[in-house]
From TrEMBL, chains A, B:
The keyword Nuclease appears for this protein: no
PROSITE patterns for this protein: HTH_GNTR
Protein name: Putative L-lactate dehydrogenase operon regulatory protein
CDD domains: WHTH_GntR
Organism of derivation: Roseovarius litorisediminis
Gene name tied to this protein: lldR_1
DNA sequence: CATTTTTAAACCAAATATATACCAATATAT
DNA sequence: ATATATTGGTATATATTTGGTTTAAAAATG
């Protein structure tokens, strides 16, 4: 052990050290921090102090504290993505998705295979089991839209969708979005996902595109609703 | 670092370790992981714990679990890919433009200003003076579509259009494309550009989008015509 | 001095991990 | 083709771990 014994550490000191571990990359996305009781010992502080530090980091959006489970990293270490992606606003993002995803539905009807749709079906089922868990739902939702893009077999489109997914995950908006994801909204999304999938399976490009537009319109509404709060 | 020696491993810890093995490349695409029962022993955890970890990784899209068979790596290690752009085929590009540009027209009607349209008009005029010069025409054409994207005031969309423009300029088939650009085709393009611009000025989003689709269809035809030669 | 922060200990509820047994899908050898 | 072994899927009862909370005393701070 390398001598932390030097000085007494306050809550904000500990927060700073953990924050640094995260942006340095020693702690990566989805990693679980050591339990509060262990951190307390390694930093030579009381559990209550560590707890304050972690709450600070949670407010800053670096970690997510899950009672009974642990504290997890929710922050991507500085990758140098283009400014256009980092600074994209939620509304810009929605307009871009409005451009892409309905047409992606049409292409999916043309190029998608049974296996693609089966995968999307699996994700639908998973999302339907996440009605009470906005975070997991949101993650599965991202995968659903990625799987949809996959089914077009268009590497360029898939790449663009991936870039867009980065916008969604990095921002504070994600947290705000989770707040707007009540059970009713999630159920509505799930119904729309199913309808889209059905339209793809029955090879109805325009119907799939139309439902996708409705889906995005729903999402846009819940977004504006959230920003007015 | 050292001597974490005997820390108990939770599901997310195991998930993190496997995730790192995958992105590091120790586990490659289509590799099969060890059976759950073996992993459980090597990580010193119960099978249920390993199982939870693997399910997490499946949610994240790193692995695919096939009952009775095994668990397989499905993650394309670190795309972040210029590859998707460099290797994009002309048809992939056309499909992507089909997705983006009609909707860009709609957004242009919403957010475009007179100055934007004036700039596009200038480019139209320039293109009309290039009927005999496919290379110059092609350059101006790129600028026209970029100016159209600019008029949406959507930084994300503009960035995507720029990426796509790189595809167009880099590749060999750009040369091929120039071969198909006879005077008749260029005149047709020019007429369509004018029509699009007019629809934007008169604030008719759907008409602008429709003409854009026709424009892209024309381009796609001349593309397939070229590749059959 | 008054105030805030840290410490320390105990307890709670929820989430997770363990251990075991059995089922279902798949692969392999006969 | 059939039988057998291997693999993931599921269920369950129990034990452990984890964050959440409260309280009171000690230490640091201004």
């Amino acid at each position: 052990m390398t001598a932390h014994a030097e000085q007494k550490l306050g809550a904000s000191d500990i927060a700073a050290m953990v924050r640094r571990e995260i942006s340095k990359g020693n702690l990566q996305l989805h990693d679980r921090l050591q339990p509060e009781r262990v951190l307390a010992e390694t930093y030579g502080a009381a559990r209550g102090t560590v707890r304050k530090a972690l709450n600070l980091l949670e407010d800053e959006g670096f970690v997510e504290i899950r009672p009974g489970s642990g504290t997890y990293v929710v922050h991507k270490p500085d990758d140098s993505s283009p400014a256009a992606i980092d600074n994209a606003t939620p509304l810009e993002l929605m307009d871009t998705r409005f451009a892409l995803e309905p047409h992606i539905c049409r292409l999916s009807v043309l190029h998608g295979r049974r296996a693609d749709f089966d995968k999307m079906e699996t994700l639908c089922t998973r999302m339907e089991q996440c009605v009470e868990d906005p975070v997991s739902f949101s993650e599965a939702d991202t995968h659903f839209h990625r799987a949809l893009a996959d089914s077009t077999r268009n590497g360029l489109l898939i790449w663009i969708i991936d870039q867009i997914a980065n916008v969604r995950s990095q921002d504070d908006w994600t947290r705000m979005r989770h707040l707007t994801l009540d059970a009713a909204t999630i159920n509505q999304y799930n119904a729309q996902h199913r309808q889209i999938l059905n339209a793809l399976r029955t090879r109805e490009p325009e119907r799939a595109a139309t439902i996708m537009k409705e889906h995005l319109e729903t999402a846009r509404l819940s977004l504006t609703r959230a920003s007015e709060t």
